[in-house]
Design goal:
single chain, 220 residues, Rossmann fold, eight-stranded mixed beta sheet, 6 helices
């Protein structure tokens, strides 16, 4: 369903993105923000899924500032973290903004991110004009809790996520008062990804249902 396109940021950087277009009139635009493994097959399938649900969806390759086309195995966590830590956040936000601009003709736009991308979705909500954002298990959000989202943000967490213990969830939630949050029993980190050991089909489906309800409220 999807295809690769080129985006250009306001600072002149060019990056690839995976784009999926719905049949008929789009319900809005969605920017899918990757984990630390790149725009993997899973991220492309998620992008295609949202297009099949009626949204214009686009996933920018945020690692292209390091090297074009980086896609890592889910076991290569150290390499993914190394690349992620080497990125300048202002550049990452510029890349997301280019994807938002590409999605804007479809109507209102939301960012949906997973893991590192979940935190970046929150940061994008703080720093740019989005209509909504959805953050799946974004731990790094704790690093900018002094900033506040400019739009509604929905947060999903796994109750068994060792990277985001309950006290961290509470810390984030206290700084994001009034924003909806769900914690999923039996779910670990990455519970939405069907290529990871912690994949939880039931919780992934429930989180998707809640996300779609949220998007329906915010993008219409």
């Amino acid at each position: 369903m999807g295809d690769r396109i080129k985006l250009t940021t306001t600072d002149g950087h060019q990056l690839d993105a995976w784009r999926a277009t719905p049949e008929g009139t789009a319900k809005g635009g969605i920017v899918i923000i990757q984990e630390i493994f790149g725009v993997t097959g899973h991220i492309r399938r998620v992008t295609d899924q949202y297009a099949a649900l009626g949204y214009f969806a686009i996933a920018p390759n945020l690692f292209d500032r390091v090297e074009a086309g980086i896609v890592l195995d889910y076991s290569d966590i150290d390499r993914g973290r190394e690349i992620m830590m080497g990125l300048d956040r202002n550049g990452v936000i510029a890349d997301v903004a280019a994807a938002v601009a590409a999605a804007r003709p479809a109507g209102k736009v939301a960012a949906i991110g997973y893991c590192w991308g979940g935190a970046i979705a929150d940061l994008a909500a703080c720093r740019m004009d989005l209509d909504a954002a959805v953050s799946y298990y974004g731990r790094m959000t704790v690093e900018w809790l002094d900033e506040q989202p400019r739009c509604p943000v929905l947060y999903h967490y796994g109750a068994e996520d060792a990277l985001i213990p309950p006290e961290l969830i509470e810390q984030i939630s206290a700084a994001r008062q009034g924003q909806p949050r769900f914690v999923y029993a039996g779910a670990g980190h990455g519970f939405n990804c069907d290529e990871r050991d912690d994949f939880s089909p039931e919780n992934a489906q429930l989180a998707l249902q809640r996300t779609l309800e949220f998007l329906g409220d915010q993008l219409t």
